[in-house]
Design goal:
With 316 residues, the protein is α+β, with helices and mostly antiparallel strands. The chain has two domains: 106 residues, no CATH class; 208 residues, no CATH class. The chain is built from eleven helices and eight strands. Strands 1-2-3-4-5-6-8-7 form an eight-stranded mixed beta sheet.
Length: 316
Amino acid sequence: MNWQLLRQIGHDVYKCEDWRDNKRYYSFLARAFINRHVMEQHLTFFLSDPKRTLIMEHCPWLVDQAVRKIFYKNSTCIERAKIVQQHIFWMEKLFESDLMERIYVHGERVPLWRDEIDEKPFILYLNFTDGQQKEGCLSIELVYGSEDEKHTGWNAGTRVYQLMFFFGDTDLTIHIGALQGMVGGSDFIKKLTKKYFGYRPKNLILWCLRCLAVTVDAKKITAVTNKGYYAMNHIRLDRKLKVDLDCFWQEAGGTADCKDSRFYDIPISEYRKEMNEMKPSKRANHRRRYELMDQIQVEISKTLKKYMKNKITGKQ
């Protein structure tokens, strides 16, 4: 195995600026040694193609992910390496290389839909940045107050909600690893909910993922449960879930996986009440909400197809 390359990747990920980083760096090497056969194949996957190699050089977390206990509870090194490789495979199959380069090489975020609130931008971005690698290989974010696509740090706008996921399986599946909302900001959340006709921001971002799923012709969406969340590997008080995932997945029409309690199956289509099922006083509000949701789907689909190899037409 190429230990020189692994050491370089370790330094790129952990920087080794203090004793904590040094400890993580040597833990990375130790885990790579213990799982050396898996890691050798994982490196070969990236080194087998120049574009993958470029991604690995600029986004070393995709290598590091294989040896860390992340994505979901009790994941194995073999599973994690497969997750990363399948995700990259699907990204290559679905999208033109310039989208992958923007996200994984240049560290940019790609706008898929935009609105305006209080004369400031409110934008749905597709990206993958430091701090999200424990829960997925890609994310969508609802960001307020920033149109900067090249700088994706935590000071580049207010991240109202973010949803981390990865593509996988033989038949394209979207696996959700986490759903996270902003800390505090309850007044702003209420303002957004009112603006979007009673549709909460966390419902909005799940709708956006469903729109993405339809556009790429995904066959299934799965999501991690409270029990299956990766941080349940460790007893850490600072990793309490900010969102009750199980409750929200149930609200979204999800059903628990009967074979694995770590996951929920989420329907790609969102259930909509018929107007005659509602009180007359609520019909106008729901009608406006549904019209807005349809507009969002059209814009996300139109924008995403600009980057796709096959212009799939999805309907929901």
